[in-house]
């Protein structure tokens, strides 16, 4: 092939395609996304890495900080602690979530929709909420502390219980997807061979969801090992990497050691990320080959067991949420159990008062609107632009990179980068802008992938048709692409909004007094010992997230009705 | 087709590389105004790549494209003059049929009334009046493709490009629509290039067919030329059904198949006596009736199989050579009844000299 | 005619707007100067502090940046090369000394600095910082919970070594909490280096856990989450005022303390306003204001008793060597962390 080709290309002038206005605009936008990613991810990470190799006065000292780290037992024991918590929580969460997902997809029990809705509630809450609830359940004044048989809730037990609540819906969503893409014909074949339910489970079900299961394991593991809220509230003397970063930076003002712990935390997160990427790629291949969807058949005994199990899980989730709500209305636990709104009087407490609540809503709105615009438009350009292959490839990589960066690490990296006196972007430090940028970046990857999935389902020739009709691509983008992708766009914006409301880890280092946030306020109130007001703030966050979710659901349904003319297949 | 000698579209030495892979090798082609040209070939032959190069969607690596006397080699699609229809229709799902058809007109800031008039005219033209308020998803595949055609024609492009427009449709709709498209093209006189892998489609619709193979053009000609006088074993095999028989050159104008001597219409150039060649003949050209009058080119065969194909029979005839080569022959139902052809029966058939194509074996097997 | 009228109207509008803008700008001038003030003063007191100051100086607007001691200190250090604060009003003196060691403070002796108790001001001249009030350690005991476990009420630090208290005491982590650090540094000064660490080794046996924040132990004691919290007296008094069954104990050996203090950040563009605030912050009026929450203030002879606040506080305050504490801070914290902040080393 190349024998023939070489003389041709060598002898004749190669055509240099003239760029159309569309091409130039698209490339301009791609470069902007690239610059954004470099500023929002790469440079901060670089500054953080270099900080980990500097002494207090900014001199390069190689790995000396790491040497100090690994010779301080109080610090490096946290690695073991973090892994212990992450592994145990992952095992428990995956086991519970798998059975729940199994019940939802493989049984004909009643109330599936309700159970699923309940199971997804934890997503709407900041991760400190379960931790605070457990204080009221199992703390010294806890209503059922006897159940712990004398063990302390402040420590690994509390952390693991909190993490299971917090990560349950994330695992559940992945597992439901994995279980519902099974090929029904395999089950029919297995049944016709008279295989038992157990045998079918191990020979058909498990291999079929292998990749989904692995993916769920790594997602949960990463969430737990990078989580900050739960160990902060209920960790007691049990140190983990995420709280160590906080202690080093906030408690001891030792930024260099904070950077070192960040690097240590970055490693497992990046590894888990890489494994997940590889698995995801394989799963896509599996999905395209799928066939007849599986349909569950009624089986009274099995359905009853599944129903009871789901009811227990659902009850526990509601109980944990309910306890936070209940405790937030109790005047002075345990000495004055009368209901009052005292704990909602945030203005006389540490943490920033009601302002922090409205700040959070503002921040979440900005994040949702600006983030969705940037992410969806960026994904569109990367997906639809012609040529420019190397740049598009590297930007595609940068777009999925944020998932590998734990929030604490990102936040700390932002201090180093944006607060550097020579940084011309220094002026955004301490403003709402840096919170919005950080939050968009923190949650970029999932949104970007949602956008890519939606865009890949569009006919690839829309742009060609537009060009042939001399219609600029942005007109088609606005008139066709955006309306057709609206469900995905709304999903992205709601995802960004809810996460912006609940996130603590990335913004804990970046908020200022004027831009205090509700989730951070809850954390600081708990930190100052105002546990019930912290619960109250968490309840407010859940309330806002849930309200927005409900509106989203109503709006989506309305939109589906309006667009059913053209959306029917 | 055209009374001027200036081609409307002139393609010179177009080569397209995708990395190390050469999708088009030094392709040159002329297309005249008002012509309906089909690019025909198996998948991967480069026909769509050539179409996309003409459209500017994937600009060639080297070589030039001129349209209407203007060099458009490096222009982006938006600066060229064409309308395009894809296999997937690529209709905007959220816009009504009318808005789809009028999409290119809206952008030209034409008055609304003018757009509406043009849209109704076009819908009328493609046989879909009164359907403008519907959405693409409410239409059948055939109807959607008509809308796509109307949309491509709306801005009165100088060149209409059709990329496998009928491949996604049912067989019946396909036959019906190809007739309509041909009619429409004839009526509007728009220069049209259609890419297809379906030889029947190409034969019925095209004024000229461009047969492509492995990135090169194998043959360009009218459907009849392509069918009757394929210039390569590949074309012979790809278009229609063809018998390929082994033979040896005996004289400059005769060859031998098995023990039968076959005379040729004209002398063979450049083929030495004794060299082996391939003889091609279409099944429908094999004659069995009234061959007593013919003395030449008679060959003895045995019917080994008789397949009923509705309007005719296809017979598998075994030749009397060492290899026991098989010759396919199409016989009408009357003929089979009249002569009493049946399995196991020995019959003599004639291979008329004017229907034979000879390829030296160095040209390769199809 | 019509057009003319219209243009007349427009010109009138412009004139009016200009006049209004002028008036507004003059009006704003009266409030033009804005000071960015970093503080760790309790959230509920901030409005009071600002409005009292504005009674005397209505032309300076205070923009508060408030957080806990550790965070404000960290923030100031992080912004070392690019300071955002004009002045700090109400941060632990040890933190200010730390900033002083970094060369971040502007030496300035506020008017009347000589009237302050020498303990409450920088010994250098001009002073880099001036004290406001003392912030003293104490033990908060929840009487209901203590009774439940039949715990005797401690009267001395050393009482806390009694094994009956095992798992019933909480104190702040000195690494993150200013209160925690003043506890540790006071024990080291009271009992000597060796004795101090021996005391903490014993205390560690009884500690249920260390909290990040200094006020949390007392709040936890107030809510019955733990019987005994080592915290600071101000927080205890506040919780008691809210109705918690608390006793605030001032240990007999003496109590560690730190002071809230004021200092101007080097390089501030608003030096004049910052000086005005620094002057006011050591005035008699300011000291009377501090006394509404704190029993011991910088200006001698001002302090009156504070409700629920143990009256013997002033006499029990140790002779705190702040310079020593600031200089040895890093070493003490590292030692403390090595000894107690590790799961591996429960002893």
Short summary:
By secondary structure, chain A is an all-alpha fold. Chain A has 25 helices and 2 strands. In chain B, β7, α6 (171-188) and β8 (191-196) form a beta-alpha-beta unit.
Q: Overview of this structure, please?
A:
The complex is a heterotrimer of chains A (569), B (366) and C (347). With 569 residues, chain A is an all-alpha fold. Chain A has 2 domains: 16-50 and 341-569, Orthogonal Bundle (MetI-like fold), CATH 1.10.3720; 66-284 and 302-330, MetI-like (MetI-like fold, Orthogonal Bundle). Chain A has 25 helices and 2 strands. Chain A has a two-stranded antiparallel sheet. In chain A, a hairpin with a 3-residue loop joins strand 1 (330-332) and strand 2. By secondary structure, chain B is α+β, with helices and mostly antiparallel strands. In chain B, strands 6-7-8-3-9-10 form a 6-stranded mixed β-sheet, with helices on both faces. A 5-stranded antiparallel β-sheet of chain B has the order 13-12-11-14-19. The longest helix of chain B is centred in the middle third of the chain and has 18 residues, at 171-188. Chain C is of the alpha/beta class and 347 residues long. Chain C folds into 2 domains: 31-134 and 258-309, Periplasmic binding protein-like II (D-Maltodextrin-Binding Protein, domain 2, 3-Layer(aba) Sandwich); 135-257 and 322-340, D-Maltodextrin-Binding Protein, domain 2 (3-Layer(aba) Sandwich). Chain C is built from 12 helices and 10 strands. Chain C has helices at residues 2-29, 46-56, 69-78, 93-101, 143-148, 178-206, 216-222, 233-241, 271-281, 284-291, 313-316, 322-340, and strands spanning 33-39, 60-66, 87-92, 105-106, 130-142, 169-172, 207-211, 228-232, 246-249, 257-265. In chain C, strands 1, 2, 3, 4, 5, 6, 7, 8, 9 and 10 form a 10-stranded mixed β-sheet that branches. The longest helix of chain C is centred in the middle third of the chain and has 29 residues, at 178-206. The relative contact order of chain C is 0.16. Classes of the chains: A mainly alpha (569), B alpha+beta (366), C alpha/beta (347). At the A-C interface, helix 4 and helix 12 of A face strand 2, helix 3, strand 7, helix 7 and helix 12 of C.
């Amino acid at each position: 092939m190349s024998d023939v080709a070489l003389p041709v290309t060598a002898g004749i002038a190669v055509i240099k395609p003239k760029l159309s206005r569309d091409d130039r605009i698209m490339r301009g936008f791609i470069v902007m996304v690239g610059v954004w990613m470099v500023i929002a991810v790469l440079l901060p990470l670089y500054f953080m890495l270099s900080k980990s190799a500097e002494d207090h006065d900014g001199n390069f000292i190689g790995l000396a900080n790491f040497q100090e780290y690994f010779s301080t037992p109080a610090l490096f024991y946290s690695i073991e602690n973090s892994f212990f918590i992450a592994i145990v929580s992952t095992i428990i969460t995956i086991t519970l979530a798998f059975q729940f997902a199994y019940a939802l997809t493989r049984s004909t029990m009643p109330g599936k929709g309700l159970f699923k809705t309940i199971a997804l509630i934890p997503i709407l809450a900041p991760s400190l909420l379960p931790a605070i609830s457990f204080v009221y359940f199992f703390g010294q004044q806890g209503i059922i502390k006897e159940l712990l048989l004398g063990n302390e809730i402040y420590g690994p037990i509390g952390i693991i219980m909190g993490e299971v609540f917090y990560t349950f819906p994330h695992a559940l969503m992945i597992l439901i997807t994995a279980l519902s893409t099974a090929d029904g014909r395999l089950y029919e074949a297995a049944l016709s061979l008279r295989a038992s339910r157990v045998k079918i489970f191990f020979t058909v079900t498990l291999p079929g969801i292998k990749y989904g299961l692995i993916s769920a394991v790594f997602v949960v593991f990463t969430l737990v090992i990078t989580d900050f809220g739960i160990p902060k509230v209920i960790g007691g003397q049990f140190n983990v990497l995420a709280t160590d970063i906080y202690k080093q930076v906030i408690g001891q003002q030792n930024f260099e050691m904070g950077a070192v712990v960040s690097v240590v935390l970055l490693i497992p997160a990046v590894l888990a990320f890489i494994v997940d990427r590889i698995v995801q790629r394989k799963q896509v291949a599996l999905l395209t080959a799928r066939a007849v969807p599986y349909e569950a058949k009624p089986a009274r005994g099995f359905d009853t067991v599944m129903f009871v199990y789901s009811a227990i899980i659902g009850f526990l989730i509601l109980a944990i949420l309910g306890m936070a709500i209940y405790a937030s209305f109790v005047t002075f636990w345990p000495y004055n159990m009368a209901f009052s709104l005292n704990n909602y009087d945030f203005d006389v407490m540490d943490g920033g008062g009601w302002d922090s609540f409205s700040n959070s809503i503002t921040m979440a709105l900005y994040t949702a609107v600006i983030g969705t615009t940037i992410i969806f438009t960026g994904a569109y350009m990367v997906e639809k632009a012609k040529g420019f292959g190397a740049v598009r490839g590297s930007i595609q990589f940068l777009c999925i990179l944020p998932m590998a960066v734990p929030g604490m690490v990102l936040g700390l990296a932002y201090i180093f980068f944006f607060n550097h006196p020579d940084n011309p972007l220094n002026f955004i430090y301490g403003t709402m802008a840096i919170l919005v940028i950080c939050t968009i970046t923190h949650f970029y990857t999932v949104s970007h992938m949602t956008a890519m999935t939606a865009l890949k389902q569009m006919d690839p020739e829309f742009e060609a048709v537009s060009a042939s009709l001399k219609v600029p691509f942005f007109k088609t983008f606005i008139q066709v692409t955006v309306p057709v992708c609206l469900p995905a766009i709304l999903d992205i914006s709601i995802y960004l909004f809810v996460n912006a409301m609940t996130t603590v880890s990335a913004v804990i280092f970046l908020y200022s007094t004027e831009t205090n946030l509700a989730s951070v306020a809850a954390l600081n109130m708990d930190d100052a010992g105002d546990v019930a007001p912290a619960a109250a703030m968490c309840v407010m966050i859940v309330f806002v997230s849930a309200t927005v979710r409900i509106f989203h659901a109503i709006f989506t349904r309305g939109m589906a009705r309006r667009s059913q003319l053209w959306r029917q297949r | 087709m055209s009374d001027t000698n200036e081609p409307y579209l002139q393609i010179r030495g177009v080569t397209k590389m995708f990395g190390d892979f050469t999708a088009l090798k030094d392709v040159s082609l002329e297309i005249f105004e008002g012509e309906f040209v089909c690019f025909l070939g198996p998948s991967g032959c480069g026909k769509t790549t050539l179409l996309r190069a003409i459209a500017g969607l994937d600009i060639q690596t080297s070589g030039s494209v001129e349209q209407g006397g203007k060099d458009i080699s490096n222009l982006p699609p938006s600066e060229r003059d064409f309308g395009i229809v894809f296999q997937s229709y690529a209709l905007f799902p959220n816009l009504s049929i009318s808005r789809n058809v009028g999409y290119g007109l809206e952008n030209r800031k034409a008055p609304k009334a003018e757009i509406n008039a043009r849209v109704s005219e076009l819908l009328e033209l493609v046989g879909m009046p009164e359907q403008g308020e519907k959405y693409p998803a409410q239409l059948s595949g055939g109807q959607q493709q008509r809308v796509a055609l109307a949309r491509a024609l709306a801005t009165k492009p100088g060149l209409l490009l059709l990329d496998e427009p009928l491949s996604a449709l049912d067989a019946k709709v396909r036959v019906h629509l190809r007739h309509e498209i041909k009619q429409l093209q004839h009526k509007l006189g728009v220069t049209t290039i259609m890419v297809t892998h379906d030889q029947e489609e190409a034969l019925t619709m095209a004024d000229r067919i461009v047969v492509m193979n492995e990135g090169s053009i194998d043959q360009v000609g009218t459907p009849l030329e392509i069918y009757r006088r394929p210039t390569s074993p590949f074309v012979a095999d790809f278009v229609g059904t063809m018998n390929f028989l082994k033979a040896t050159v005996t004289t400059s104008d005769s060859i031998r198949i098995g023990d039968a001597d076959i005379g040729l219409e004209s002398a063979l150039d450049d083929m030495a006596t004794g060299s082996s060649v391939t003889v091609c003949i279409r099944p429908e050209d094999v004659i069995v009736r009234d061959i007593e009058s013919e003395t030449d080119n008679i060959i003895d065969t045995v019917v080994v199989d008789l397949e009923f194909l509705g309007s005719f029979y296809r017979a598998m005839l075994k030749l009397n050579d060492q290899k026991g080569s098989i010759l396919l022959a199409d016989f009408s139902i009357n003929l089979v009844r009249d002569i009493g052809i049946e399995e196991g029966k020995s019959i003599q058939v004639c291979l008329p000299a004017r229907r034979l194509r000879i390829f030296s074996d160095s040209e390769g097997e199809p | 005619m019509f057009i003319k009228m219209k243009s007349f109207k427009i010109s009138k509008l412009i004139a009016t707007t200009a006049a209004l803008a002028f008036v507004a700008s003059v009006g704003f001038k009266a409030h033009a100067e804005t000071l960015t003030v970093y503080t760790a003063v309790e959230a509920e007191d901030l409005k009071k502090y600002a409005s009292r100051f504005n009674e005397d100086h209505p032309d300076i607007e205070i923009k508060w940046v408030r957080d806990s001691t550790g965070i404000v200190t960290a923030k100031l250090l992080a912004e070392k090369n690019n300071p955002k604060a004009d002045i700090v009003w109400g941060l632990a003196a040890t933190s200010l000394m730390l900033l002083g060691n970094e060369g971040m403070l502007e030496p300035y002796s506020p008017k009347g600095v000589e009237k302050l108790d020498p303990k409450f001001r920088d010994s250098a001249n001009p002073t880099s910082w001036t004290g406001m009030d003392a912030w003293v350690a104490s033990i908060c005991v929840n009487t209901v919970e203590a009774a439940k476990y039949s715990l005797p009420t401690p009267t001395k630090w050393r009482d806390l070594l009694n094994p009956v208290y095992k798992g019933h005491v909480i104190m702040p982590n000195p690494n993150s909490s200013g209160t925690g650090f003043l506890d540790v540094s006071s024990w080291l000064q009271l009992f000597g280096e060796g004795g101090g660490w021996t005391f903490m080794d014993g205390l560690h046996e009884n500690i249920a856990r260390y909290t990040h924040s200094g006020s949390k132990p007392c709040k936890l004691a107030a809510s019955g989450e733990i019987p005994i919290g080592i915290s600071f007296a101000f927080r205890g008094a506040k919780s008691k005022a809210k109705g918690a069954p608390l006793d605030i104990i001032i240990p007999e050996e003496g109590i560690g303390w730190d002071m809230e203090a004021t200092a101007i950040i080097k390089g501030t563009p608003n030096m004049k306003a910052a000086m005005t605030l620094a002057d006011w912050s050591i005035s008699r009026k300011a000291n009377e204001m501090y006394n509404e929450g704190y029993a011991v203030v910088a200006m001698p002879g001002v302090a009156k008793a504070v409700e629920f606040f143990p009256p013997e506080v002033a006499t029990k305050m140790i002779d705190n060597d702040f310079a020593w504490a600031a200089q040895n801070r890093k070493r003490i914290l590292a030692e403390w962390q090595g000894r107690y902040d590790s799961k591996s080393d429960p002893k």
